[in-house]
Structure formats: structure tokens, C-alpha cells
Amino acid sequence: MSNVVSLHEYFYNLMITNGINNFTVIELRDEILAKAGNVFCSNTARIYVYRRILYLESKQLLRKTQSGPGKQVRYLTTPLFKKTRFSSKSTLKNLNTSTPDNQDISFHEALLKEKRTYEKSLKVTEQEVATFASLIKRYPYQQDHVQPFLNQAREDVHRLQSQMNAISKILEVTSS
Q1: 3-state class of 18 per DSSP?
Q2: In whole angstroms, how large is the CA radius of gyration of the chain?
Q3: How far is CA 168 from the centre of its chain?
């Protein structure tokens, strides 16, 4: 392999410097959590590790062994891994992005954010309904093809409106 494969610094240190081999996703996640400190939460670290593993697996640098179901799957380095040149890159995107439950956002603020998301989705879906209805008017002979999409979009509108109504009711109770 003539190209150099770049790895994020935490992954580089574990895989290349420490020479970790024959590991599970959870084992590697725990190692990264121990080395990285507060950079990752447990779930984010697992996702980070799994993405790196899939990347190396796609380049045939790691091989999956079926030694058990799900969490028992182990990964081994391949001979190509040993021949490959690696470099460490220290630019990490914001990997500690947390969901509202992991942050100190109040329940009320989280619901407001969720409601705004539903409102945006509702606007888009209402536009889809209008577009499908317009297509049926312009091309009535294609109604059989367009009607299922129109029906689905209408159902989505109702679902989104129901979700917004439920959140609005909770917001009324919590704001008083």
C-alpha cells in the first residue's frame, strides 16, 4: 500500500504505538476512555471506535472474527496492516456532542427545541402534500402513482401535528 493511512491520535496511539490486536469494540472504547479523559462520553467513544474500525476494515487492515454474537465480535489486524504506513492526525471534530439528556439543558428548553424541529418538519411535509396534490391535478392519469405518496404525506402531517400538540400541552403545564 503506497499511501499513508491517517488515524486520529487516540486511535493511532492504541493501534500503532501500543500495538493492540485481537480486541472488541467495547475493549477499545474502554482503552480510549481511559487515555482520553473527558474528551468523550461512553456512547460517543463507542461510536468513534466503531467508525474507526469500519474505516480500517474497509481498507482490509482489520478483520472481523465471529467468536460470538454482537459484543463478542473480535477484530484482528491483517498482514496488510503490518505493511501499511500510518500517520497520526490530531484534528478531531467535536466528538463530545451530547444529546439534551447529557447536557444541562432544562426540560422546558429541550421541549421547545423539539417543538421547533417538529414545526420545521411540518412545514416541509405540508409543502410535499401541496406538491403531490398539484401533480395529481396536472397529471390525473398518473394519480395511481402519486396518490400513495400524497396519502403518506398527509399521515405524516397528522403525526407531526399530534406530536406538536402533545409537546405544547406539556409546555403549558411546565411553564406555569
Answers
A1: coil
A2: 24
A3: 28
Q: Which of 19, 5, 4, 7 is nearest to 51 (CA)?
A: 7
Instruction: Report d(CA 49, CA 57) in Å as an integer.
Output: 12
pLDDT, averaged per 10 consecutive residues of the chain (176 residues), comes to 71 79 82 76 80 84 73 81 78 49 64 89 91 93 92 91 90 78
**Quick one: pLDDT at residue 1?**
44
Burial (Cβ within 10 Å: 0-12, 13-18, ≥19) of residue 131: middle
Let me know how long the chain is: 176
Write down the CATH number for the domain with range 5-96: 1.10.10.10
Predicted pLDDT of residue 101 = 44
Give the model's pLDDT for residue 134.
92
Cell of 102: 447529557
The whole-number pLDDT of residue 69 equals 64
Spans of all domains in the chain:
5-96, 101-175
Rounded Cα distance, 40 and 161, in Å: 36
| Range list of H helices, 37-142 | 42-58, 79-83, 107-138
| Rounded Cα–Cα distance for residues 63 and 75 (Å) | 5
Contact 74, 66 (CB under 8 A): no
